[in-house]
Specification:
Layout (H helix, E strand, L loop, with lengths): L9 E4 L6 H12 L3 E3 H9 L3 H8 L1 H16 L5 E3 L8 H10 L1 E6 L2 H8 L13 H19 L4 E4 L5 H18 L1
Parallel strand pairs: 1-3, 1-4, 2-3, 4-5
Helix pairs in contact: 1-8, 2-4, 3-4, 4-5, 6-7
């Protein structure tokens, strides 16, 4: 029954640490569709890790590559895609993704994001920040990106629920949207 639920690609957006990859993989498995992580695709295309791209070329070059790949890949996309936390930083990309498939915002509070990210050392946007700097950076990024995230077709809160509970809620909303549209 769930195998044919998804009529178009589903793009997960949200902050780093919101659970896009974890939810995306589990949802793809449950729906029997392919799973793709945009960060993995960027690393394959560039032959560099995300931290290497940031260190060698800078954030602007990373964002340019990210936008080009989103626009190119989304046109023939199938299955579930986890977008990078900063992938939706302009209206053109946000509009494009929404035209190509379902855009779902994985929503978390700043406190939840902090607790999930405080021991993370492999994320260039927050590397080497102390506790206070990290809290401030998370809130700043969240404030900056929220106007784009909130344009998603629908959102799912992922603060305390189990992955299964979050996926079941997402599927419930997805069924509604698939039937309605």
């Amino acid at each position: 029954m769930l195998e044919n639920l998804l009529s178009q690609p589903l793009f997960l957006c949200g902050m780093m640490g919101s659970g896009k990859s974890t939810i995306g993989k589990a949802l793809a498995h449950k729906l029997s569709v392919p799973y793709h992580d945009l960060d993995d695709i960027i690393e394959q295309e560039s032959s560099l890790t995300i931290p290497e791209i940031f260190n060698q070329k800078g954030e602007d070059a990373f964002r340019q590559l990210e936008q080009e790949l989103i626009i190119r890949i989304s046109q023939t996309a199938e299955g579930i895609f986890s977008l990078g936390g900063g992938a939706l930083q302009n209206q053109q990309v946000t509009d494009h993704v929404k035209l190509q498939g379902w855009l779902v915002f994985i929503e978390c509070s700043a406190d939840t994001l902090y607790s999930r990210l405080k021991n993370s050392s492999d994320r260039p946007m927050i590397a080497n920040l102390n506790e206070q700097e990290l809290k401030k950076k998370i809130q700043s990024l969240l404030n900056q990106r929220l106007p784009y995230y909130k344009q998603a077709h629908f959102s799912i809160k992922n603060d305390q629920d189990s992955v299964d509970d979050t996926i079941n809620e997402l599927i419930k909303k997805l069924k509604f949207y698939e039937q309605k549209y």
